[in-house]
Design brief:
Layout (H helix, E strand, L loop, with lengths): L2 E4 L9 H11 L3 E7 L11 H7 L6 E7 L7 H6 L4 E5 L6 H10 L3 E6 L17 E5 L14 H14 L5 E5 L7 H7 L3 E4 L1 H4 L3 H13 L1
Parallel strand pairs: 1-8, 2-3, 3-4, 4-5, 5-6, 6-7, 7-8
Bound molecules: D-xylitol-5-phosphate (DX5) and zinc ion (ZN).
Length: 217
C-alpha cells in the first residue's frame, strides 16, 4: 500500500496541533517529523518536547527522521515521546547495526536513510534487518528544494536490490516531491511519500487528497 507522510517542517507552528488533525482527517497515514541538529545538517529544527506535545493530536504513524550525529544517543528519548518509526542516516552512525538494533529492541520500526550521493552498497548486509529505507532526493537540511533527477534511477536500483534479496522493505522518498513528479517516483518503486511544501502551501486538506488520489490510482 502507498502511504503519504506529510513533513511538518513546512507546517505553521502556531497551529501545529490543528494542522495535524487536518492531515489525519484528510487521510494521510504518516506524520513525517524532521529532527535537525545543526551539525549533521546546517539547520536546527525541533526535538523531543515538540513531538511529545503533539503526540495526542493524532494516532497516525509518527515517522521520525533523525538528521543528527550519532543518533544512538537519543533513540530511547524519541521512543519515549511517541516515535513509531525512526530513520537514522548511515552517514551519521559510527555503528549502524548497533543503532538499528537499538531502535528495534524498543519495539518500533527502524529505517536507514541515505543522502543522495551515498551508494546503495552501504545497505548490502543490513537490508534484511530494516523495515524501511529512506532515500533523500535533496541534500538534507531544508524544505522546498528541487528533486535531484538521478534519484529516480536510485529508487529503481533499490527496489531491484530489495526484490533480489526477497525482502519486504518499504521505500520512503523524501525531498522535492510534488504532485507532478510523484507518479514517476511511485513507478520507480517507492511506496511511502514524504511531502512538505507541496502539502502545507495552500489548502492542506485539498493537497493531501490530491496526493492520495494519484497514489491510490
Ligand atoms: C529535508 C527534510 C524533508 C523536507 C521535505 O531535509 O528531510 O523531510 O521537509 O520538504 P519538501 O517536500 O518541501 O522538499
Ligand atoms: Zn525528512
Amino acid at each position: 500500500m502507498n502511504c503519504l507522510a506529510p513533513s511538518i517542517l513546512s507546517a505553521d507552528f502556531t497551529k501545529l496541533g490543528e494542522q495535524l488533525e487536518l492531515l489525519d482527517r484528510a487521510g494521510a497515514q504518516y506524520v513525517h517529523i524532521d529532527v535537525m541538529d545543526g551539525s549533521f545538517v546546517p539547520s536546527i529544527s525541533y526535538g523531543m518536547p515538540v513531538i511529545k506535545s503533539v503526540r495526542s493530536c493524532t494516532d497516525r504513524i509518527f515517522d521520525v527522521h533523525l538528521m543528527i550525529e550519532e543518533p544512538i544517543r537519543y533513540i530511547d528519548d524519541f521512543v519515549d515521546v511517541g516515535a513509531d518509526l525512526i530513520s537514522v542516516h548511515v552517514e551519521a552512525c559510527r555503528h549502524l547495526d548497533r543503532t538499528i538494533h537499538a531502535i528495534k529492541d524498543r519495539g518500533i520500526l527502524a529505517a536507514a536513510a541515505l543522502n543522495p550521493a551515498t551508494p546503495l552498497t552501504e545497505l548490502e548486509y543490513i537490508l534484511p534487518d530494516l523495515d524501511m529505507v529512506l532515500l533523500m532526493c535533496v541534500n538534507p537540511g531544508f524544505g522546498g528544494q528541487k528533486y535531484i533527477p538521478y534519484m529516480t534511477q536510485k529508487i529503481r536500483d533499490l527496489k531491484e536490490m530489495i526484490d533480489r534479496k526477497g525482502c519486504q522493505t518499504d521505500i520512503e522518498v523524501d525531498g522535492g516531491v510534488k504532485l507532478d513528479n510523484v507518479r514517476e517516483i511511485l513507478d520507480a518503486g517507492a511506496n511511502i511519500i514524504v511531502a512538505g511544501s507541496a502539502v502545507f502551501q495552500g489548502d492542506i486538506e485539498k493537497n493531501v487528497e490530491a496526493f492520495l488520489q494519484i497514489m491510490e490510482a
